[in-house]
TrEMBL record:
Encoding gene (name): C2orf69
Matches recorded under InterPro entries: C2orf69_mit
Source organism (scientific name): Oreochromis niloticus (Nile tilapia)
Full protein name: Chromosome 2 open reading frame 69
Keyword Chloroplast appears in the UniProt entry: no
Signal sequence, start to end: 1-19
Pfam families from the UniProt entry: C2orf69 (PF10561)
GO cellular component, one term: mitochondrion
């Protein structure tokens, strides 16, 4: 039933993308132009692709992009990191260019997003985590972080001592830092002495990528109680939810009061940026309700989440859905 519902709801994104038809010659020009913009000059020197980086289990791997900070910002960056989880359709530049729907959104490829985040966080190392599976080249599935169906709709679960989103992210960053030859890398496991000096972490989820942040919220009570994981969690400074959405029929935003109480007490700065595309869709009215419940519950527990509805005076559109990546 969940898969059937996901298929129906997922068609919304596909249909809207198909509606913006482009001729083959125009696509070829767009591919070339976008590729030049994203992968040229000094920008390319700062961007590194790390394929098949393992997490806490050797058979669970993700491709990573690492954008290093500007040289003049490098001293300030020390060991500060931003991790981004993308949405549906988004992929590496060359793979999006091969897909009729993906080619229309090349300006939101993983490489382009890395550069956008680099401008937003010039003094940080920016990591873009590619979903481990792209079903039909469209539906991002973060199976390595949270149990999901083929369309990427999640089944959230509490913290586990040896698996889950926090364990996978920590090991993924650790192995990625070693692969990229960064100095003083994070250790894949351990207590307070395994965290490098100056280490801080900002997590950003966009659209489907927010399922990873949601899973971490469900894991937070157990992770904070685990002496091996709590030092890592304490170094997460900010979590950004950018227009969260997925093809399941509920739990687009976390509404469980107990885990939200833990999030409010964690000291993490919480940010929620949305657009009418997700929170004002009458066909998916639960998304807006859940977003409101998320914000209200956190405020009741004493948190002060920053929140903004972008493009509220414009018609809902996929274009503005993506643009929140630039505007947050």
């Amino acid at each position: 039933m969940l898969a059937e519902r996901a298929a129906v709801l997922g068609l919304t994104l596909i249909t809207a993308a198909k509606a913006m038809t482009t001729s083959p010659s125009e696509l070829r020009g767009l591919h070339a132009s976008a590729s030049r913009d994203a992968l040229s000059g000094t920008s390319l020197q700062k961007l590194q692709r790390l394929p098949a980086v393992p997490g806490n289990l050797p058979n669970r791997v993700n491709d990573l992009l690492l954008l290093r900070p500007d040289p003049e910002e490098h001293e300030k960056s020390n060991n500060r990191h931003v991790v981004f989880f993308h949405g549906d359709i988004q992929n590496f530049q060359e793979e999006m260019a091969l897909q009729p729907e993906g080619a229309q959104w090349l300006s939101w490829s993983l490489e382009q997003v890395a550069f956008t985040l680099g401008r937003r966080f010039p003094d940080r190392h920016v990591w873009v985590v590619r979903a481990s599976r792209m079903y039909l080249h469209k539906f991002s599935c973060y199976q390595n972080f949270v149990e999901s169906n083929m369309f990427g709709a999640p089944e959230h679960s509490p913290y586990s001592a040896d698996s889950g989103a926090f364990h996978h992210l920590r090991a993924l960053l650790s192995h990625g830092m070693v692969r990229a030859s960064l100095p003083d890398p994070l250790k894949p496991q351990g207590g307070a002495d395994s965290i490098p000096s100056g280490f801080s972490l900002t997590l950003v989820g966009f659209s489907k990528g927010c399922v990873v942040l949601n899973q971490m919220v469900y894991e937070l009570p157990g992770a904070r109680a685990d002496p091996q994981m709590s030092p890592f969690v304490k170094h997460i400074s900010d979590m950004f939810w950018l227009d969260g959405g997925h093809p399941g029929g509920s739990e687009t935003w976390v509404t469980d009061k107990q885990v939200l109480k833990e999030l409010a007490a964690s000291g993490v700065s919480i940010h929620a940026h949305v657009t009418p595309y997700e929170v004002c869709d009458p066909m998916r009215a639960w998304v807006g309700r859940e977003h409101g419940h998320f914000i209200k519950t956190l405020e009741e527990f004493g948190a002060c989440p920053s929140k903004k509805l972008h493009f509220k005076d414009e018609p809902p559109s996929i274009e503005n859905h993506f643009r929140v990546i630039q505007e947050f």
